[in-house]
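User: tokens in, sequence out, please.
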């Protein structure tokens, strides 16, 4: 197929018959966020490349291999966001949000771009729902953010998920850990991939997140951060667990979770589904207490998560969750002749103003084809307008589900339809309306 007719590798179209699922899911995400006090923020799809290099970290896979980076016509290095936290932090600092009332709670939904090998659950353009909370350093904040992610997932009907948590400490306790990791990997240096050989000196923790089978095999036996936590970090982690227990949120501690982005400190977590294959992590997040100051803002603790919406859709499908399909057409007005078409426009306008989904024939087809179309779009009722109907101001309303018909006064079409839809049958219509 010619390129002009082919979507770019790793991208997806959300087609008209599926978009209602996305709308339902997104509405639920924003509504649940609102219950927890999170307000939506919208940030640009692209940022100065430095925003991501500095935050995500220049030894991560995301920055080293996956970013869509280009020079714009003004010679600036621009990157399509691989995730939204960096842009949100940039905005919160630039617009002074982190100097206002804290905690600041924001949520977002948006596209992310990563040059990865496309496969099930892994795309080059994908979408994330996420939240960020600034100025909340207490374990209660970690539990609240985890609880929000869980509420979204469970509320949408996902049940087969496990929550895995870990603590990756602070820069202080990480010093000792880095030394231990370095010693461990140094002994295996020859077996590591080229990228990880370089990481050994610069950031040994990144090796733990390498996707190469050999490196991950080696990493399985590496020392774990949780054994190196300082007292403050250990207490914080105990606090998070106490809050989760109190909220009835089940979790397991997985000392191997490190997350693929450099900015995390202390708590990290993932919601994992085992029903969608290898790419089972639907949601990942954690605390990033150093990031705001590292990006030039005040020293405020922060945390958040990102949830992959495409992966969530796969999970919903695999768990057999169905979302309510919206009505597409309450009434289709078939027309014969141009005067009838004008009348149909008038009636449609009135019906829509009342909240009905009304459509009329706008393709100039014959009656039979119009009927076929009305059927195809699932019209609940149908009315045919021709010269006779215009002169008598009456028409026959047909219930498409059972082919029952009733004569109706065109001036009373709105009331008629209201009653008919409420009762879902023409037979139930009250005489007074007819
Ligand atoms: P993975 O380990 O699967 O590569 P990640 O650690 O890179 O994930 P994050 O950067 O934490 O993922 O992003 C948060 C969520 O976004 C993931 O849990 C996942 O649901 C989703 N996600 C990440 N990368 C992709 C992608 N390429 N395609 C689809 N969804 C993705
Ligand atoms: Mg990744």
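Assistant: Sequence out:
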């Amino acid at each position: 197929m010619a390129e002009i007719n082919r979507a770019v590798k790793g991208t997806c179209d959300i087609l008209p018959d599926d978009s209602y699922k996305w709308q339902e899911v997104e509405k639920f995400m924003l509504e649940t966020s609102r219950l927890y006090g999170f307000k939506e923020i919208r940030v640009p799809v692209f940022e100065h490349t430095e925003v991501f290099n500095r935050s995500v970290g220049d030894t991560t896979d995301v920055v080293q291999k996956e970013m869509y980076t280009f020079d714009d016509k003004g010679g600036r290095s621009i990157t399509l966001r691989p995730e939204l936290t960096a842009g949100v932090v940039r905005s919160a600092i630039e617009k002074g949000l982190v100097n206002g009332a804290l905690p600041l709670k924001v949520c977002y939904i948006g596209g992310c771009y990563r040059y990865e090998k496309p496969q099930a659950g892994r795309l080059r353009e994908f979408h994330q729902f996420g939240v960020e909370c600034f100025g909340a350093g207490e374990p209660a904040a970690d539990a609240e953010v985890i609880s929000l992610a869980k509420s979204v997932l469970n509320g949408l009907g996902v049940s087969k998920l496990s929550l895995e948590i870990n603590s990756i400490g602070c820069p202080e306790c990480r010093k000792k850990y880095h030394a231990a990791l370095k010693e461990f990997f140094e002994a295996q240096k020859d077996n590591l991939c080229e990228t990880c050989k370089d990481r050994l000196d610069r950031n040994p923790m990144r090796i733990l997140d390498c996707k190469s089978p050999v490196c991950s095999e080696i990493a399985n036996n590496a020392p774990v951060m949780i054994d190196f936590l300082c007292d403050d970090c250990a207490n914080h982690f105990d606090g998070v667990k106490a809050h989760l227990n109190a909220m009835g949120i089940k979790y397991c501690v997985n000392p191997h979770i490190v997350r693929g982005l450099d900015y995390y400190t202390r708590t990290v977590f993932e919601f994992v589904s085992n029903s969608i294959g290898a790419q089972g992590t639907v949601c990942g997040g954690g605390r990033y207490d150093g990031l705001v100051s590292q990006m030039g803002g005040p020293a405020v603790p922060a945390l958040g998560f990102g949830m992959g919406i495409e992966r969530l859709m796969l999970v919903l499908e695999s768990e057999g969750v169905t979302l309510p399909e919206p009505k597409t057409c309450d009434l289709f007005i078939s027309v014969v002749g141009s005067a009838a078409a004008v009348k149909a426009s008038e009636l449609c306008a009135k019906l829509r103003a009342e909240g009905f989904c009304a459509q009329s024939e706008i393709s100039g087809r014959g009656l039979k084809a119009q009927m076929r179309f009305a059927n195809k779009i699932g019209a609940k009722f149908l009315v045919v307008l021709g010269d006779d109907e215009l002169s008598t101001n009456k028409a026959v309303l047909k219930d498409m589900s059972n082919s029952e018909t009733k004569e109706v006064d065109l001036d009373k079409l709105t009331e008629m339809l209201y009653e008919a839809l409420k009762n879902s049958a023409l037979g139930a219509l009250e005489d007074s309306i007819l």
